[in-house]
Amino acid sequence: MAKYHWQSQNVKQSGVDDMVLLSKITEDAIVDNLKKRYMDDYIFTYIGPVLISVNPFKQMPYFTDREIEMYQGAAQYENPPHIYALSDNMYRNMMIDAENQCVIISGESGAGKTVAAKYIMGYISKVSGGGSKVQHVKDIILQSNPLLEAFGNAKTVRNNNSSRFGKYFEIQFSRGGEPDGGKISNFLLEKSRVVSQNENERNFHIYYQMIEGANDQQKESLGIMTPDYYCYLNQSGTYKVDGTNDSKDFQETMEAMQVIGIPGDHQTQVLQIVGGILHLGNISFIEAGNYGKVESTDLLAFPAYLLGIDPSRLQDKLTSRKMESKWAGKSESINVTLNQEQATYTRDALAKALYARLFDYLVEAINKAIQKPHEEFSIGVLDIYGFEIFQRNGFEQFCINFVNEKLQQIFIELTLKAEQEEYVQEGIKWTPIEYFNNKIVCDLIENKLNPPGIMSVLDDVCATMHAKGEGADGTLLQKLQAAVGVHEHFNSWNSGFVVHHYAGKVSYDIVGFCERNRDVLFPDLIELMQSSEYTFIRGLFPENLNTDKKSRPTTASSKIKKQANDLVNTLMKCTPHYIRCIKPNETKRPKDWEESRGRHQVEYLGLRENIRVRRAGFAYRRLFNKFLNRYAILTAETWPCWRGPEQQGVLHLLRSVNMDTDQYQMGRSKVFVKNPESLFLLEEMRERKFDTFARIIQKSWRKYIARKKYEQMREEASDILYNSKERRKNSINRNFVGDYLGLEQRPELRQFLAKRERVDFADSVNKFDRRFKSIKRDLILTPKGIYLIGREKVKKGPEKGQIKEVLKRKLEFGSLSGISLSTRQDDFFILHESQYDSLLESNFKTEFLSLLLKRYEEAIKRKLSISFTDRLEFRVKKEGWGGGGSRVVVFQRGQGDVAELKAGGKTLSITVGDGLPKSSSKWNQTTATWQTIGGEPGKNFLPGSLNEEKIMKVYIFYTAYSSPHKQGRPPSTAPPKLGSQRAPRVPAHSQNNQGNLDFLNVPDQGMITPQPQPKGPRCRAIYQYIGQDTDEISFDVNDVFDLIKEDPSGWWTGRVQGKEGLFPGNYVEKI
Predict the structure, then answer these.
(1) From 14, 87, 114, 822, active-site residue
(2) 565-607 pLDDT, tens per residue?
(3) Among the options 386, 785, 915, 935, which is catalytic?
(4) Which helix (H) or strand (E) holds 405?
(5) Binding site feature residues for ATP
(6) Of the candidates 436, 450, 510, which has an alpha carbon nearest to the alpha carbon of residue 483?
(7) Are 423 and 617 contacting, i.e. CB atoms less than 8 angstroms apart?
(8) Which of 322, 516, 709, 1046 has CA 20 to 30 A from 113's CA?
């Protein structure tokens, strides 16, 4: 029999959600669990707070607004694992703890890191509030994705949309939690891809997007041809990617530039540079007497035109170079003519420099659009190239794998090493768990001295290298062998060297290492681009060539080393969260699990050690003073401040909530809590306290707003029937309650509504069929439509014979064509719908109609037709082979206020006496009085006596930081609700009925009938209690009232101000 997740609706259970709960902690068990969930289309799994994500290679159905609503404000264990749960946790932690957060998304190339980052940013954008300025920032944050992907992503053999650069995106927030700024840091763009690609790979997406998506005018002005015409695109023989629409993506890229605020002329220049690079690549060189010469000078004109430079000057700078010569203390400039190889290298260097600087400009444009003067809170999302092992691995793969090695070090440092060290420092009982610490590999690559690391040796070789060539690479290999040849994680081979990374051994081809590390752009080329007629292009090359450069130029490896260490420092200042992405196959096909590949990733990601540390450790730790500050509100002794040692205060709090002693340990400066559930208990109790305090203020404010609203509703309801229909006594002057079914306590009815779908009206009505037979239906009106709910006996299955609620009909607003009523004082009305009509009877028809008309107009943007006549016709539903047909309802004058029904054939006659005249005056506002919070009648509510600004501030705070679906009763010792001991009751339709809007009661005709004081036992309130159900009473501290009945369940019956109802017995003392 299939298992289902305990709380989420109909979500099948597959394996275990959290691998901390695995019965065996072995790599086999971990792989089997991930595989089982992956094959059942569950791509997310937890290890405590760490999220494991397996790339499904298809679009999954659970990333809709429904899931966003489901995970917002929910605890991690409430719903199945999801990236939205981690995102929500980050956002709430930032708001609660006032600490910056970051998420480190790691995994190899093609494991789904970029998509994960997009979902996180999308979720945060949806759940955070804000006005038009904040919306503008959100738009830029979301639009930065397609723009940076176009210029920074490419198809590789392992991934069709591989990030070829690293990105750390900080979303900055105001203290109210609104995203009001941001900042992107980018790392190591793979520039070499601009000029060469491996087989079955592509250049950056933007080239193919522009070729496919540019309009005719753009194609003509940019000289766009087919991709196989360009040398920079035709080396790999791959131009298309399955599932990618380059033309559509180009329009998105251009739209993103517009949203970000890049001016139109700059957008044109961006495309000119992209086109200019393509044409530049078609300039080829031939050897002429040991010198390089442009093979076809005709090909110089178009790139020169697009870049705004002189063609002859371009030719000159590609084939010669100005060099400084020093002799006898004097220096002079001489022009050196380049050979064919050097000229090709110079052309490629210019193309790479143009593209890299253009990419930096785009990142800077995004940063300028969303920068804010001072930082408050932030959430950082790290989306960086994954670990790569290709057939041929060059300098770029070396740098990429180094950054991944550093990220793995952070993960080890914070989840395995630091956690265990903290337990020892704090004196917590702990058995150490062994793990592989990859710091030894990081040191092998980045050490400066004793012994020098690979990058230091590389920089030394480049400093003494004067010309491009294989000699420098050979020297590098010899020096590496001498420096680190005996290192256990290093080996050399005839064409390069091998590094034993945490993710496996990688063989690096030494060819090109020195050249790519130097990354020098010769002054001649800078000077050439500074001569461009376009200000935009000149701005990309701001160097001052007149200053003497005596320092050694910065190399690519030293740059990436600094960036990686700066990134680590940034991440260490935040509260980190982790997503470990797994690539299940190399075929990029869904539901294809390669066992060896999955096992290898589980092993090198250290998931087994992670589970073991997590299982033995503590989910939550907090400094004593921070813990006290957060939970002080739970007891009178700790609020507003604890007088005594902080440790004792923490112990007092833990004991006051009856937390088991095996669920926590006290360290020297921190308290350690074992399970997340224990923490959620504390949070829920804290929330209940706030709930109690905020409820009074909230109620006062709501009452004031509701008074205005309900005055207006009565006016509108009166207008609907005015001069059209006779009135019953008090039909307008009664309270409008809305929910007459008590839906908050009726999950069997709420199941048919969406989560948090607001209910405008709910009532039990009579519905008449084709034979005019009456049957009860629950009528519910929401902003989404009208629900008619009935009951049926289950005919088969384990619940056979039981009566169950069934959704009989849902009427969309768009399908309604009108409403018909009689002119008499009856309660009948007909809802006319496109398929068939519904004849209904409700005591509260006026309230229902006023709300329905309003909702209909909001949804359809026109008024709903309403007619009044004493001969009504309605269409009935077709049944079997018979036709639907129609029925007639005739209203006649009779005696008394109760309608008499007589059916005959296809006609129903309804007889009822005369009511109040159709022109009866509207509701008299001046005679109505308003109840105070405590329920004392007869006193007018004076909003002017309240500080409305303070009320609103507290109300906003409460609604922003409290989960609306978790409401409890103070104090924590209150008895549980009876549940099965007393079934939910449908309140009677009377003036005392309060529904869930008890604070809206206005006594009929503005008069209060004095209640006689009965003799019998009485009690005094020792706590305030606010009734939360229709059959409960409310009272303030020291209120004295009648005790009618004591019940062993703890829920007693009493009478306050003439109203009888239930209340918790431990809130009072008998007198």
Answers:
(1) 114
(2) 888 888 888 888 999 999 999 888 999 999 998 998 888 888 8
(3) 386
(4) helix 395-411
(5) 107-114
(6) 450
(7) yes
(8) 516
Query: What tokens were used for 367?
Result: 């940063």
Single out the catalytic residue among 388, 426, 446, 1032.
Answer: 388
Distance CA 513, CA 468 (A): 11
pLDDT confidence bin for 910, thresholds 50/70/90 = very high
Cβ contacts of residue 516 below 8 Å, gap of 6+?
192, 394, 395, 396, 556
Whether residue 131 lies in the annotated active site:
no
700 is catalytic: no
Tell me if 351 sits within 8 A of 280, measured CB to CB.
yes
Q: How far apart are CA 504 and CA 596, in angstroms?
A: 13
Pull the structure tokens for residue 1058: 């003439």
The answer to whether residue 675 is catalytic is no
At residue 960, the pLDDT reads 36
Among 934, 968, 955, 946, which Cα is nearest to 702's? 955
145, 162, 404, 638: the catalytic one is: 162
Specify whether the CB–CB gap between 278 and 207 falls below 8 A.
yes
Surface-to-core class of residue 976, CB atoms within 10 Å of its CB (0-12 exposed, 13-18 middle, 19+ buried): exposed
Note the pLDDT of residue 911. Answer: 94
User: Among 215-224, 434-443, 828-837, whose mean pLDDT is lowest?
Assistant: 434-443
Which is catalytic among the residues 110, 166, 380, 1061? 110
Taking 60 as the threshold, does the pLDDT of residue 961 lie above it?
no
Q: What is the Cα–Cα distance from 861 to 858, expressed in whole angstroms?
A: 6
Q: What is the largest CA-CA distance in the chain?
A: 128
Mean pLDDT (whole number) for 1039-1062 = 86
Residue 90 scores a pLDDT above 80: yes
CB neighbours of residue 832 within 10 Å: 20
CB atoms within 10 A of CB 589: 10
Given a cut of 90, whether residue 954 has pLDDT beyond it is no
Residue among 53, 106, 109, 438 flagged as catalytic: 109
Mean per-residue pLDDT for 169-180? 88
DSSP 8-class letter at 417: I
Residue 905 known to be catalytic: no
Instruction: Please report the pLDDT score of residue 821 as a whole number.
Output: 94
According to DSSP, the residues that pair with 321 across neighbouring strands are 336
Binned at pLDDT 50, 70 and 90, residue 928 comes out as very low
Binding-site entries? 107-114
Backbone angles phi, psi at 572, to 5 degrees: -70, -20
Residues 6+ apart with CB under 8 A from 447: 453, 456
* 2 token code pair: 């299939």
| pLDDT for position 981 | 36
Residue 656 has pLDDT above 80, yes or no: yes
DSSP secondary structure, 159-221, as one string? -TTEE-SEEEEEEEE-TTS-EEEEEEEEE---GGGGT---TT--SBHHHHHHHHH--HHHHHH
71 contacts: CB under 8 Å, gap ≥ 6? 79, 82, 84, 85, 87, 88, 123
How remote is the C-alpha of 845 from its chain's centroid? 41
Q: Which of 380, 382, 387, 381 is nearest to 403 (CA)?
A: 387
Measured distance CA(1016)–CA(236) in Å, rounded? 95
Q: Is the pTM of this model over 0.90?
A: no
Structure tokens at 259: 């949203």
Indicate if 110 belongs to the active site. yes
Q: Is 386 in the active site? A: yes
